[in-house]
Structures are given as structure tokens and as C-alpha cells.
Amino acid sequence: MTEILVPTLGESVTTATVARWLKKAGEAVAADEPVVELETDKVTVEVNAPAAGTIESIAADEGAEVEVGAVLGVLGSGSGAAPAPKPAAPAAAPAAAPKVEEPRPVAGPVARPGGAEPTAATGGHAPLPAAAKMMADKGVSADQIGTGSAKDGRIAKGDVLAFLSRPAPEAPKAAPKAARAPESGEERVKMTRLRKTIANRLKEAQNTAAMLTTFNEVDMSAAMALRSEYKDAFEKRHGVKLGFMSFFVRACVVALQEFPAVNAEIDGDDIVYKNFVNMGIAVGGPSGLVVPVLRNAQDLSFAGIEKAIGDFGKRVRDGQLKLEEMAGGSFTITNGGIYGSLMSTPILNPPQSGILGMHAIKERPVVVAGKIEVRPMMYLALSYDHRIVDGKEAVSFLVRVKEAIEDPRRLILGL
Predict the structure, then answer these.
(1) In the annotation, is 386 catalytic?
(2) Tens digits of per-residue pLDDT, 235-280?
(3) Are residues 278 and 366 in the same domain?
(4) Rg for the chain (alpha carbons), in Å?
(5) SS3 135
(6) Which H, E and C letters describe 159-220, residue by residue?
(7) Per the residue annotation, which of 137, 143, 299, 390 is the catalytic one?
(8) Single pTM value for the model
């Protein structure tokens, strides 16, 4: 008998939600075959069978919140062909259990005593283990939170965090709003764990940081001319296309080295300065926006940056991005221009203190040497945390990026 356990989920990720079982009790599986999907705050993770055999039982149902090391199910020996009828008995027992015992105990070793008791507000089901512990620590009852977002209306850790983040006077208004009956033509769909995490983090940035945005515009003529002249030779030499993102990554690296506060973060009463640039690149995926990190971007060439970004984009679309590849960023670049955005104010990615927003390139009339010329122009936006970055630093940083893009020879020469 072999236990199927929740694997290590990456930096700062300790819990996950059982999103979907790919195999049922009684089904045969091969070694390393995916059997269950877990949804974390960042990505969906497949858990593979540790050995070949037959799934004897499932310990954590879909929607359950589990911690690293928790038992998801039990794998028995054998190919599964002969024992196929055998799991019928174990499968019947768990199905009958809820009819006799209410509420049903949460399976797996993550259950803890002292959690909130089930009430009518939770649909007769106890909160998930991590939620119960947090509720006990914070002195929150299930009646205050109401119906949870996990399976069967159980309260998940995210529900507790959402409740704790509400302003005190508005807390009582949330429950009736959640219970509103759908009107004709409406469809109610549960938010994914990733989407809830995005929502919470963006709200956290607004509530915590003294966020301001400064704007500038950049003439893309020189960068476009350089790219047009060398794009074929670049692709032939390096096997990857030359895009504009590598120009902006290099320009930001230069500017961050000159203005280190934009690359720093606040930790308690301290400012943490970093002697490296871990550049987050916002990428839109099927489940929402994710930010993979180019580590030590200051050491990467144009070709290295383009290869890494291309690889990130492909694996985001295929759902193959690893959790550790999205941790540890010190600054972020987001490009709304690929969707047609002309101007926007990007939101900080906590605990980072700066994020650069790129936008669509549009031909506009500009004055050059006293004459009006049509140039390909792009608006740039830098959102920054005013607690750590002064306005002068923010404006100077953006001007430095503008200068590097408008004269890309500076990037090649390291000026």
C-alpha cells in the first residue's frame, strides 16, 4: 500500500485545493501517471502516482483544502485488472458515511482539533482545516463568514482572509450579497483559486502601498530601425526572434542599477535593497495573469532575454510553468500594448516597489528640431510605492528608460 501525498508546492506555498481527480477509486494507474490536480494560489499542479497499482481510496475530495505532505489517496498493489470489483466496497462506505455522521470528518492528516463547529451558515459542514485554524487564531466564527467557497459550501482559508480584509462596517453586508438569487440571464461561477489570489493581492497593493503613477512617452524610431536591420541575422544566429521586450528589460536593468530604491522592498521597518534584478514579466494565460521571473536579468544578453521570455510564454499557455519560476521578483514589466492599450496605470506586485507599463505603439505628430514629424510613439507608465520611492527618483527612472530606448546604442555600450 502506497500513499499519494501532496508534494512540495514551492516558495511560500503551503496549501492547495483539490481541483480534480483524474482517476477514480478502483482504477489502475501506471507509475508517474497523473492522478489528481491541485490548484494553488499561483498555478495548477498535477500529482503523479508514486508507483503502479490501483487506487484503493480517495482521502481528499474535490474542493478540499490540503497542506504539503497530506494524504490525497491510497494506492494498492496490482495492475488493477483483477481487483477492479474490489474497490466497490470501500467506495460504498464513504458514500454512506455522511448519511450516518454529520458533519463528515475532513480526510487527511491536516485536520486539527479546535476548529469552528459546523453551523447552519456553513451548510452543516465544518470549515477546511487551514480555515478552521485561522478562524480559531483570529476569533472568527463560521456564522460571521457564512457560506464558504469550497465544495458543499465549506469555508476555505481564502474565505477567512477575505472576511478579515473587509472594512468593519461593511462586513455584515457581504452575506446577503452572496446569497442573492440569480436573475434571468445570469450565470454564477465560483472564482478559481488563482483568480481569488489575484484579486486579494491587487487589493492588498492598493490598501498597503502609497501607490502613484508617473508617465512619459518614448520615440520608438531608433529601436524599430535597429530591430528591422538586424532581426533576420539575430534569429539566424540565436534561433529566436528579436522583440522589443528585450530592449525594455535591458533599459530597466540600467535604470534600476542607477535608482536602486525602485528595485527595493519594505520589510517591517527596514528597506531591503537588492544587488540583483529579478525581472518579473507579466504574461496572460488561460487562467489569468501570471508573472514568471527572469532571474539575474542584469547578466542576460538580448538573446538570453528573448529565449527566456519565449519559453515562459509557451509554458504559460500549456500550463507547465513551475511555481518557483514565479517567486522572488524584484521589479515587473507588463505590456498592455499587445492587447491594444494606449495608456493605463499598472498595479504594483507586492512586495515590489515598482512596475513598468508598456503600451501600444502609435504614429503621432511630434516636434523634432523645430519641425513636426510623424513618429512611432509609446506611452510608458511607472507605478511606484511612494513610501520608499520619491517622486524625483520615479520620474528620473522613467526618463532613464526613455533615453535608453530612444538611443539603444547606450544599451549595447552599457551607458
Answers:
(1) yes
(2) 999 999 999 999 999 999 999 999 999 999 999 889 999 999 999 9
(3) yes
(4) 26
(5) helix
(6) HHHHHHHCCHHHHHHHHHHHCCCCCCCCCCCCCCHHHHHHHHHHHHHHHHCCEEEEEEEEEC
(7) 390
(8) 0.60
CATH number at residue 84: 2.40.50.100
The whole-angstrom separation of Cα 329 and Cα 42 is: 14
What total of structural domains would you count in the chain? 3
Enumerate residues 6+ apart whose C-beta is below 8 A from 323: 9, 10, 11, 13, 40, 42, 43, 45
- Is 58 within 8 Å of 73 (Cβ atoms)? yes
> Is residue 185 one of the residues assigned to a domain?
no
**Active-site entry in 137, 143, 232, 386:** 386
Q: What is the pLDDT of residues 391-413, one digit of tens each?
A: 999 999 999 999 999 999 888 87
Contact 70, 107 (CB under 8 A): no
Instruction: Say if CB 249 and CB 279 are below 8 A apart.
Output: yes
List the strands of the sheet with 15-21, edge to edge. 44-48, 34-39, 15-21, 65-67
Strands 293-294 and 371-385: unpaired
pLDDT tier at 298 (50, 70, 90 boundaries)? very high
Same domain, yes or no: 354 and 325: yes
126 secondary structure, DSSP code: P
Domain assignment of residue 215, given as a range: 210-413
Active site residue 125: no
Considering the domain architecture, whether residues 8 and 68 belong to the same structural domain is answered as yes
